[in-house]
Amino acid sequence: MPDRVYFGNFSVDLQSGEIQNLGVKVKLRGKPCQILIALLKNPGEVVPRKQLIELLWAPNTFVDFDANIKTSLSHLRRALGDSVASPRYIQTVHGVGYRFLEPVHTTDPRASQDLAPQPSNLIEDSPQDAAAVPNFAMNLPDFRSQSYQGTGWARVTAVVTTLLVAVLLVAFVARSKPTVLQSQSHINDKHSREVLLIPFENTNGDTANQSLVSGVFNGVASSLQVRLPDSITVVRQEQRGNVPATGQPAGQNSGVEYILEGNMNCSHDFVTLNAELLRVADGKIVWSGTLEHKRTEAMSFQNEIADRVSESIVRQNGPSGSADGGDRGAL
């Protein structure tokens, strides 16, 4: 299959995941983009839910697959302008999987339409018809006369005046645009700071519980990646010693602004999770919480933690975000 495919007004690079809508890049990454590529590689066919799970998550990962897939599809449909009720691109086959409805092309069909010769509406006259047309003598006006010269100069003056106004308007917009771009760049930079996720510690040291601890951590990471796309960095267990130090200005640590860490205590019936979100710039805890669930409901942690962390970051990035000292307490 070629590297780039086309459907509707969209084009997708199957290798890099870059998506364009009429030549303009669409911001879509992570799992929504992976789902789209999987569907585009099998147009018109149902891609089973199990196949998507194997594609999106590593083996032995414990997350709420249905919730994560639905959330990713919601982001994907929003980017494509699609809907569940009246699907144009992605159809849900209940209990089975998903199907891509639109025809997928290996070349841009719009380019071939632009190059195709347009049919002529003119009908050539036969020699008989041409002979039958009377030869009218047309008395054309003398454009050299003073009246027509005056009209011509008036039109030229109007055109030149319009062009001058357009040039002045473009110059005004160009001078004011850098301020707008600079402001927007600052906003984007502020919200693109990374959140470092450090694997949760297994406090009771029982290796039999390590798979559960890792599963909860992976679930929190997946949920945060949905809520804060392009802002999540996960530190592997062997990299724990390389975590940036707090109390330094954000930006000295490759854009890392927040660190999420925690520990889990797993008993036979219950699991307790303690988590903290630290701000790297000053070392303050902007959110902390203690959660407890039955062992059979441990995966409920992921959405609760992700909600609290994302809400705290949005609150900190608000107009008065740096004024408070953090949000603490049990959930």
Task: Draw up the topology in text.
Blueprint: E1 4-7, E2 10-13, E3 19-21, E4 24-26, H1 30-40, E5 46-48, H2 49-56, H3 65-80, E6 90-93, E7 97-100, H4 109-115, H5 127-132, H6 146-191, E8 194-197, E9 201-202, H7 210-227, E10 232-234, E11 256-266, E12 270-279, E13 285-294, H8 301-316
Parallel strand pairs: 8-10, 8-11, 9-11
Antiparallel strand pairs: 1-2, 2-3, 3-4, 5-7, 6-7, 11-12, 12-13
Q: What gross morphology would you assign?
A: flat
Give the ordered list of helices and strands. EEEEHEHHEEHHHEEHEEEEH
Let me know the largest β-sheet: 6 strands, mixed
Number of H- or I-type helical stretches: 8
Explain how this protein is built:
Helix 7 packs across helix 8 (301-316). It is flat and about 95 Å long. Residues 177-192, 248-253 and 321-325 have low confidence and may be disordered. It contains eight helices and 13 strands. Strands 8, 9, 10, 11, 12 and 13 form a six-stranded mixed β-sheet that branches. Strands 1-2-3-4 form a four-stranded antiparallel β-sheet, with no helix packed on it. Helix content is 39%, strand content 20%. The two termini are 50 Å apart. The chain has helices at residues 30-40, 49-56, 65-80, 109-115, 127-132, 146-191, 210-227, 301-316, and strands spanning 4-7, 10-13, 19-21, 24-26, 46-48, 90-93, 97-100, 194-197, 201-202, 232-234, 256-266, 270-279, 285-294. The chain is an alpha+beta fold and 331 residues long.
